[in-house]
Amino acid sequence: MKGGLTLLRENLQRIKPSEKHAANYILAHPAEVVQLTVKELADRSGSSEAAVIRLCKSIGVTGYRNLKLKIVGDLQNVSDNKGVFHEIKPNDTVAHLMEAIAEKHTQSIRKTLLVNDAASMETAVSAIAHARKIDFYGVGASYLVAEDGEQKFGRIGKWCTAYSDAHQQLASAANLTADDVAFAISYSGETEQLLPVLKQAKKSGATTIAMTKVGQNRLQELAEIKLFTVAREAQIRSAATSSRIVQMYVMDIMYTAVAGRNYNHTIEALEKSRQAIQQTFQTEQK
Hints:
- 62% of the residues lie in helices and 9% in strands.
- It is built from 14 helices and five strands.
- The chain has helices at 4-11, 17-28, 30-33, 38-45, 49-58, 64-80, 94-115, 118-130, 141-155, 166-174, 194-203, 218-222, 242-261, 263-285; strands at 134-137, 160-163, 181-185, 207-213, 225-229.
- The radius of gyration is 22 Å and the shape is globular.
- The protein starts with a helix and ends with a helix.
- The relative contact order is 0.11.
- InterPro entries: Homeodomain-like_sf, HTH_RpiR, RpiR-like, RpiR-like_SIS, SIS_dom, SIS_dom_sf, WH-like_DNA-bd_sf.
């Protein structure tokens, strides 16, 4: 699947002059454009909102948002291919690391906010809120996010389980129903272990959700509902950092939205959880 910038370059000579103004501006300022509305792009490029919409159709993209998603994917791939980025450096001061890591995580969260539209989030929230059972699937650091989902949703009375073992993942997916949700988490979207799991979940009739980085990947192609994350990860690092942070951010959105849908039930479930924990550990301490 071609990226947004490639599609623009390939079609630049045949599109109408009014569309070309917008196309040239996008090619010259891709990182800026992904943060612009249709009107803002039209104003800055000297075109019109209608021309921007026509441009998307002319290059075979279904809407301005999808064009921006493709461009974000292009920018992500450029960042990933610039070479080995070292997160760990000799003699880095703690003060510098505090600022640098805070800035990196903040940028990743803002970019993740940008590439996810409210409609897709709403669809995912609705599916989870109405699910009989939710199975979370992850491997490595992504499994920590799956466990976080299990812990959060379990406390508000949702039946959910996080799996990292390949056999357990497949067994659980095979026993899902049309009333259930299969939620796969992989930053690359290419984790081989998760591909047959999501295929099996679809075969079982479950609603499938994939949370991956922006851009084409096989896990997104399998999923009914697609959630995106944006992060730059160093090839030389101690562990997944920014990718885990933005995955947790998306999971927090899902949890908070679902909890708010059934507010009274949520408060009751949280109170039951609190009392059970408090009573148990107070008894043990006596």
